[in-house]
Amino acid sequence: MKVGIIMGSKSDWPTMQHAADMLDKFGVEYETKVVSAHRTPQLLADYASSAAERGIKVIIAGAGGAAHLPGMAAAFTSLPVLGVPVKSKALNGVDSLLSICQMPKGVAVGTLAIGDAGAANAGLLAAQILGCQQPELLAKIDQFRSEQTETILANPNPAE
Ligand code: RP5
């Protein structure tokens, strides 16, 4: 497994599935697991501290509300951790965003956008990180971006 996708609750899956879909697109292996910072703290410690020795290269962590999962995962591993703020019911994910991005100096979490776009981009960014060591993966990402550009250029009229 190259990427570990973890999330605070099963209810985060409809969002986090977009990260998995993006990795599927590029043929990147991943595992998915519910790991909660506050409901299963020991599992989080075990998961993050053993991730590198299990072959994980990047962790994507999604959580909503008081979203300490990405920061706590980063505290237990020096692998790159990408945080996805899940859209919360009460504050639309602004709470999740601020919880994840405001890491104090010394422990880094890369924070993506709130919700589906952030999850998809976390998958994309994880693939790009892995692509630094795998030219064929980087070529697939270049191809994806070219297709995206071509689709827009081929359909410039917004009313059509
Ligand atoms: C967080 O609390 C989870 O990441 C989720 O976004 C949020 C709500 O969880 P549930 O009450 O739906 O399980 O820990």
Automatic annotation (TrEMBL):
SUPFAM superfamilies: N5-CAIR mutase (phosphoribosylaminoimidazole carboxylase, PurE). It catalyses: 5-carboxyamino-1-(5-phospho-D-ribosyl)imidazole + H(+) = 5-amino-1-(5-phospho-D-ribosyl)imidazole-4-carboxylate. Gene3D superfamilies: 3.40.50.1970. Pathway: Purine metabolism; IMP biosynthesis via de novo pathway; 5-amino-1-(5-phospho-D-ribosyl)imidazole-4-carboxylate from 5-amino-1-(5-phospho-D-ribosyl)imidazole (N5-CAIR route): step 2/2. It is an enzyme of class 5 (isomerase). Its EC number is 5.4.99.18. It holds the Pfam family AIRC. InterPro entries: PurE_ClassI, PurE_dom, PurE_prokaryotes. Substrate binds at S9, D12, R39. Residues 1-152 form the PurE domain. Keywords: Isomerase, Purine biosynthesis. Belongs to the AIR carboxylase family. Class I subfamily. Catalyzes the conversion of N5-carboxyaminoimidazole ribonucleotide (N5-CAIR) to 4-carboxy-5-aminoimidazole ribonucleotide (CAIR). This is N5-carboxyaminoimidazole ribonucleotide mutase. It comes from Kangiella marina. The lineage of its organism: Bacteria, Pseudomonadati, Pseudomonadota, Gammaproteobacteria, Kangiellales. The gene is purE.
